[in-house]
Amino acid sequence: MASASKYTNIYASYGAYYGLSVSFNENSTSTPNNTSNVTLSASISSQNRSGWSSSSASTLTLYWHDNRENYDRYVSSISFNGVSSGETKTTTGTIDVTHNDDGSLSGYAYVYFAKGGTSAYAPASSGLTTDWTALTTIARYPTLTSGSNFTDIQNPVYNISKPASLYNIRVKIEAGGNTQLIIRDLASNYRGNYTLELTESERNTLRALCPNSKTLAVRETVCAMNGNTELSANFKDYTMTIVDASPTFGASYLDTNSTTTAITGDNQQIIRNQSLLEIDVSNATAYKYATLSSIKTTINATEYTATLSGGNATFNIGEINVSSDTNAVVTLTDSRGFTATQTLALEVLNWELPTAIINLQRENNYYSNTNINVDANYSSLDSHNTITLKVRYKKVTDSSYGAYVTLQDNVTSTLNLDNNYQWDVQVLVQDLLGQTTYNLTLDRGIPIIFFDRLRRSMGINCFTEEDESLEISGERVWLGKEISDSDLSNYTYYE
User: Is-contact 161 194, C-beta < 8 A?
Assistant: First the structure.
């Protein structure tokens, strides 16, 4: 409670002086009445054992002055014909003072001594005031004791403190620079918790203010209203959070390679490094005033992006180097950062170029008859794939190959490759998607030493052609047998 006092000395003509004092004390306040109860007091007393008396009465008058009424309000007074030595004259009074509409008030106590008569021992007329002093501010308007954070599907709760039922209450939500965004008017006697139940339209208004954020700064305000005039505004800042607003979409995949789909008969089967994988996104939708931001697909840690248009997007992934079933994870992101994901299980058929183990060998290592066996290894593609084996050959000295000859997988076939020549042999291993070519060389079929039992002959680096002969690299050798001159030219002489 407020209080103030002031003291001064006032003097007579012959050296006598007197103490003049004034004070006030705020005793209590009345919230309903918007008033304070104030006791004021003023006095005059002799200070140096002097006094005076007069046939004319002097007066001591006490006033109150405040910044609401702004005039000297009479409180009390006392009249007396003098003050004896050591005597004190006092006047007091208690009044109720009305505060301003906002509950504030400042004022002071004022005393005036009016001299009666002409005694030289009486002090001259004088006044004295206390300092301007603020009285207790009386709460007049409602206040927001606490509000609440809330989600866009919840309702904010206000705890309202209101000391007096003088004014109606207005509850507001302010956001986005709009101070009148959402309003509710309450009766003057409302106190306690108030739940501001938002309409769907109001919720949408708030959502539209934060299309790129999951949160919205809101100001919750309580006002005192005089008709449509706001007398006060007491507020606290809180946050609205957007929830349950993840985007949605549909996703599917297919093989767009007509060659591979003709083999599998199913565009949902993806052949490694051959199929052209396409992922399609449809009906992508953002909610609660957000917009679509981006979309991506991740396959085996590799990320792909696409452009959204009208809620649709196409990922032209193309060939993927994956040997077994895998997943494509599609992620859609909106402007608030909310995401949605779908996982597509990709059925993958492993495919690699066909290979073969080839065995090419002349009979007995030197005959023209040559055996060839091709043991192929190829990808089954879930039993959709087939293998074709072909062989062609030419003498090393020739410039072009002959026509292909078809072979059976892991079945030995015989080729007639003149053992007097070296041959280029080319084997083609081909499945429905690719081929591998093997180039081999077959040496001549010439024995180091050949014994011809029927001819009773021996050949070195050649087969024998004559009876009872030794032949080296196709040349007959004379071993001392008598021969006719006519035959001599058919022999080679070795010393």
Answer: no
